[in-house]
Design a protein that fits this description.
CATH architecture of the largest domain: 2-Layer Sandwich
Oligomer: single chain
CATH class of the largest domain: Alpha Beta
Number of domains: 2
Shape: globular
Radius of gyration: 19 Å
Largest sheet: 7 strands, mixed
């Protein structure tokens, strides 16, 4: 059967789309056309959280039941109007590698990514300048990962404790679901050091693990994680990325990494309370706006600890 292809114009950019009726979420019947429509509609609130950040795509060309892969270097197939940032990183074998990362700053680029079946968009906690230079971190993130049988409910209880500590240190704290089994807390920060956010996050995570060793761990060792919540402070390493706000996830159903209110965190009593699909997130945004919308207005210096 020939591949279906159409050409559309998005904000003055010509973009080829293919296989629009391909089902990418078989258990839910969610097609690529619906993925594209979701990203088109969520773009006004999502793009500010992607803009100027070197993105990593997690692509699912055969749908969520197929084998996904991560993609950072897009220079080989990106249209010439896609902004890229050429960055040099430490490679897996210890050497250095230079890659052209996509910078998703406008609707055409977001639609291009969605057409690649890049269901998940991951971004770092730093931005790049107009010429592609990497800036110091502007976000501090804590990734709360529950070890079964712990779940997102347990993450919420840890999030409340963690938030109290961060607020006490003078930071403003935002929460979102991972769209998977956990959640993340973000604090907008100012620093001139690439290491300060990691150092501070590690100190905070280790302090809470000492206070509550029965429910919290700060080490990645899997053997000690069952029934506890791992506070992953290492997401602040400049080489790492975290799922972007409003990104779809490659799960059985089209769940979304969703900003939530602290009232919702405090009220969470079962995992379903903080599980949101694409359509539900669009409805939430229409009703509540972007709960991360003012995050850039509350930057504070990374505290000493």
């Amino acid at each position: 059967m020939p591949e279906e292809r159409i050409t559309v114009e998005v904000e003055g950019r010509r973009l080829g789309l293919s296989n629009l009726d391909k089902v990418l979420y078989p258990a839910h019947g969610f097609t690529k056309r619906e993925v594209l429509d979701y990203y088109r509609r969520i773009a006004p609130v999502m793009l500010p959280h992607l803009r100027d950040r070197a993105a990593t795509f997690r692509r699912f060309p055969d749908g969520v039941d197929g084998e996904p892969f991560y993609e950072k270097n897009v220079s080989r197939h990106a249209p010439d109007w896609v902004r890229t940032a050429r960055l040099t990183n430490r490679g897996r074998r210890g050497g250095e590698e230079t890659l052209d990362y996509p910078v998703v700053g406008d609707l055409p680029t977001l639609m291009w990514a969605a057409n690649l079946a890049a269901l998940e968009l991951h971004v770092p906690q730093w931005t790049v300048g107009p010429r592609g230079a990497r800036k110091s971190p502007d976000l501090l993130v804590f990734d709360l990962d529950p070890g079964p049988p712990a779940d997102v409910v347990d993450c919420c209880r840890v999030a409340e404790t963690l938030s109290d500590l961060l607020i006490g240190d003078g930071l403003t704290v935002y929460a979102k679901t991972s769209g998977n089994k956990g959640m993340q807390l973000y604090c907008p920060v100012r620093t001139r050091s690439d290491e300060r956010t990691s150092e501070y996050a590690k100190a905070v995570a280790e302090e809470l693990a000492r206070r509550s060793p029965e429910t919290i761990v700060a080490k990645m060792t899997k053997a000690i994680r069952p029934g506890r919540v791992f506070i992953d402070w290492s997401q602040n390493n400049t080489a790492k990325t975290t799922i972007a706000p409003y990104s779809l996830r490659g799960r059985a159903i089209p769940t979304v990494s969703t900003p939530v209110t602290w009232e919702e965190v405090e009220a969470c009593r079962k995992a379903a309370d903080l599980l949101f699909t694409a359509e539900q997130v669009l409805e939430r945004v229409e009703e509540m706006g972007d709960l991360f919308g003012d995050i850039a207005e509350h930057r504070a210096a990374v505290p000493q600890r």
